[in-house]
Amino acid sequence: MTSASGPVPPSASAIESAIRRAEDDLAHTLDHLKALVRIPSCSFPGFDPAHLEASAAYTVGWLTASGYPEARVVRMPGTHPYVIAKDHRAGPGFPTLLLYAHHDVQPPLREALWTSPVFEPTERNGRIYARGIADDKAGIAIHCAAAAAWTRTAGAPPINITVIIEGEEETGSHHFSAFLDAHLHELGADALVIADASNFDTGLPSLTTSLRGLVGVEIELKALRAPLHSGMWGGTVPDAVQALCRLIASLSDEHGEIAIPGISAAVRELSALERSAYARLPYDARRFADQAGILSGSSPADGVEVYRRMWRWPSLSVNAIQAGARGQTGNVVMDSAWARLGIRIVPDMDSQTVLAQLERHLRAHVPAGMRLDIVPLGASSAWGCATDHPLFATAAAAMARGYGVQPVFIGCGGSIPFVGEMTAKLGGIPALLTGVEDPACGAHSENESLHLGDFTSALKAQVALFGLIAQGRALTAAPRAGARPSTGLAGQPEPGKVGA
């Protein structure tokens, strides 16, 4: 809306009207979501790629029906289709928000363990069960329905919106960098919303402000040309399996801390505000142990320390070890032993530096006379966002409006490798990582589900976000190009003091 004096932001009553419309249209939105979920759009090799074509086409149709003046399928060589949509009717006087989700899904996994058909949405006990319903077709639904609510009440969304729907997120987004380069000219935005994250708990809205990166390697230690009879040769020849165990053990100390020299030098301690934010998060040591399946039943008593170690401290995992075959190996000294290792890194750590430190440590501890082969599996960067940008206070107010409770700021121990690259290529813009997954949703597992209450709340929050951004126009000062992305987390808003 404009006047003689320029663009006019939406009123509080306009925001309320749009939220009510989203609620009134919820059944219609869920019908669309169920139709999209029925398309088995698995992006893994061996699955019919025609389903990815169908899901992209359906997404374009849904975006168009939601009021986006432009929506189209976009293709890149060698990968599944993307979708781009735009609604820039708000005009140059208002900010532009770039929305992300993905339309590909995980494989069914073990179909016999599903309690209802994998791709037939089935509602029970306040949840809808089906593959892809939460991860991430609910994100597409929110991007469609939030814009539709504004179009049907105000004629158009109060801000400019660009939407990207990816088709290969579940297989690693290997072509996403090339996609960004090819379409960067039409993706300029003041801020980014990635609707592919989780809430800390059901009913507790959460903004993810950090992601760990991942450095992975496979190593093989070789000592003999072939296995030897342990009775004839044991004690006189090198044992590759024992040597590999010692080599792996050298990577950490008796407390489980990574013992690679210098690896944690760049890691910053939590600020007082960050500790305060983590202290707000619910924590029960017994429940944590039960959720993790810890056999001893014990876990740390300090929740802040648990979250610090989960989100803001590097960790080493031995993913697999192999020497011989279980049940098929007799009394031998094995010729070689293999392992897969992974180090989760946190903001301010450089993935290539960590990879080099890991390789240097491993080679320095190889026993004499043995050969070590190292195969890097990848080195993805960590990401962190300073939350002192006005967008975060606005987003917190929108989530409080949608859920009825104040949101929390959390980290994620996992990785979404493209987030840092995407924000950097877009000029260091701030990013909101939101989503509707919760601890019970079973994403990537059997019986994936969507909590209907959280879905409704997340939709209302995004409707409110559009309006509150337009009211404050807090993003207009955000850099469009040339700015460096933030990798730290300093400046987080004080809990309980957020607002538009």
Provide a brief overview of the structure:
With 500 residues, this protein is of the alpha+beta class. The chain is 33% helix and 20% strand. The strands form six sheets. A six-stranded mixed beta sheet has the order 3-4-8-5-9-19, covered by helices on one side.
Fold and architecture overview:
This protein is of the alpha+beta class and 500 residues long. The protein folds into three domains: 2-211 and 383-477, Zn peptidases (Aminopeptidase); 213-259 and 313-379, Alpha-Beta Plaits; 268-307, no CATH class. The protein has helices spanning 12-24, 26-37, 50-65, 137-154, 176-183, 230-233, 240-249, 272-279, 285-292, 303-311, 351-364, 390-403, 418-425, 452-472; strands spanning 2-3, 6-7, 70-74, 82-87, 96-102, 122-124, 127-129, 160-166, 191-195, 206-211, 213-222, 228-229, 315-322, 332-333, 336-345, 371-380, 383-384, 408-412, 431-434, 449-451. It has a six-stranded mixed β-sheet, with helices on one face. A hairpin with a 2-residue loop joins β6 and β7 (127-129). α2 (26-37) runs antiparallel to α4 (137-154).
| Structural class computed from helices and strand pairing | alpha+beta
The DSSP helix count reads 14
Report the strand count: 20
- Could you please say which CATH topology of the largest domain applies here? Aminopeptidase
Radius of gyration: 25 Å
Q: How much helix is in the residues?
A: 25-40%
Coarse morphology: elongated
The major beta sheet can be summarized as: 6 strands, mixed
Please state the second-level CATH architecture of the largest domain: 3-Layer(aba) Sandwich
Q: Tell me the CATH superfamily of the largest domain.
A: Zn peptidases
